[in-house]
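INFO batch 0412 | record 1 of 1 | parsing
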Amino acid sequence: MAWYVALIGAVGAERLAELVISRRNLAWARSHGGREHGFGHYPFMVVLHIGLLLACLVEASGRRFIPALGWSMLAVVVLAQGLRWWCIVVLGPRWNTRIIVIPGLPLVERGPYRWLHHPNYVAVVLEGIALPLVHTAWITAAVFTVANAALLKVRIASENTAMAQALAENPPPVPPAKAVAP
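INFO prediction complete | emitting tokens
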């Protein structure tokens, strides 16, 4: 159990690092005209993610470690962290835990964004399932997954609305028409 407590502590420290980056990026975004959208669900998201870490510890304290499940889920947690940090690096100062849109900036279409619209949320979903299951906290995995699905439905809708609004206000330039030979 001690190593699982250390794992949860490491994930908690990683979340704090994300908040530091997010705060720095928020200042950058605001200095570039960024506007925040969908703030109403943000406090729920914070509580949900803190609750995940605490619930993992509480439930796992009464469970035994099952090696086949635990080690495979630990691999998923590590892969999810890799995906999350890939998103953070690719988005650079545009990455944030909040929904901030900077008018006039095009969508990012490189890195994991080549294949997925919301790869960071894929990482969150994978981690939300796998982190509790590392130490057989299946109730926590199930409850977080359902609550997170409801949250992501709201959050993704907010992001899509914010992006559509930004594109409507600042449409991308239309490339000149190509001349057609007679």
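INFO post-check: Helices lie at 2-31, 42-60, 67-91, 119-133, 138-169.
INFO record closed
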